[in-house]
Predict the 3D structure of the following.
Amino acid sequence: MKVPVNEPLISKEAKQYVQEAMDTGWLSAAGPCVQKFEEMFAEYIGVKHAIFVTSGTAALHLALSTLDLKAGDEVIVPDFTMIGSIFPIMYTGATPIFIDVEPDTFNIDVMQLESKITDKTKAIMPVHIYGHSCDMDPVMEIAQKYNIAVVEDAAEVHGGTYNGKRCGSIGTINAFSFYGNKIITTGEGGMVCTNDDALATRARSLKDLAHSPEKRFLHTELAFNYRATNLQAAVGLGQMENIDMFLERKRSMAQKYNTLLADIKGITLPTTKDYAENVYWMYALLVNDKLGMTRDELCIKLKEKGVDTRDFFLPCHSQPAVQNVFPSTETFPVSEDIANRGFYLPSGIAITDEQIEYVSDVLHDIANA
Ligand SMILES: *Cc1c(COP(=O)(O)O)cnc(C)c1O
């Protein structure tokens, strides 16, 4: 059997809306699905404003751009995340200030947060890794105390909650991704979410070349074209109509893996904190000493049996693209450790019970061999 790491499920509604969009001739960003998708997403997440853009990276850049960051400003960001969290900080000219993560949730370690704040800190970017919320109350309290913004990177957590509030609705201005492997996909795409009217207006303007409100084709500031198309929004609308079913499938996948893998001593299963509703974007595991082999050895054996996996992200501070601009010898023990030991199993919304059972059987065979 071959089990891909992530197979999406494209709903019949998405196909139907795309067909309708094609039939009406509305392909560009000016089409009617864009506003409908933004409204539906805003309502679901529980924010006043949602602004549809071309990618998660663009959404983070747009969100950060509304905060008027400049060279020398600092943005605190976890060392363990996808590089798509970091590059947007660098685009603004600001400096990413890395912070280590918790060993169990892989999210920003709030105990270390206050020690990272300086008079140059302009924003904190908590990243909700693999579908599990960060501990947001301490983040928001510290941000308020020092009067700095919070930009949630919610690219991996559509529908996940923190103490009942949806991730992506808590920070000052927040971002989602709709890349092909995300819980809601539009192929490529992203969303900026905020409750702040002024920041939303600014984001809408910067997204679309900052045409002056008084006079079209008059531009008073440097801006971007981050407009996503009506066809992408049509896909998003159809997928959003199915989000509850998608999340149910994610949860039952995780429950099944949790039950089937519980007796394997050599791997550490995902944790879920009381404050979080985990949406298991990816079912993420750590290899520990008891397995008797490394993560890389295990994943090669899994691959030989047709089970596709992905390694964890590499620590961002050590990425050449970051070191070239911000050389540093600082170390981040947790991030560096989990990057070596972590991987995720096939976790797509389309995964079947038979596939999960097969993956579990293969893992048992390897662990007991
Ligand atoms: C996917 C992802 C991004 C980037 O989103 P793109 O749509 O691929 O640009 C940013 N941050 C995190 C945590 C992600 O998982």
The domain at 243-368 is CATH 3.90.1150.10 (Aspartate Aminotransferase, domain 1). Residues 243-261 form the longest helix (19 residues).
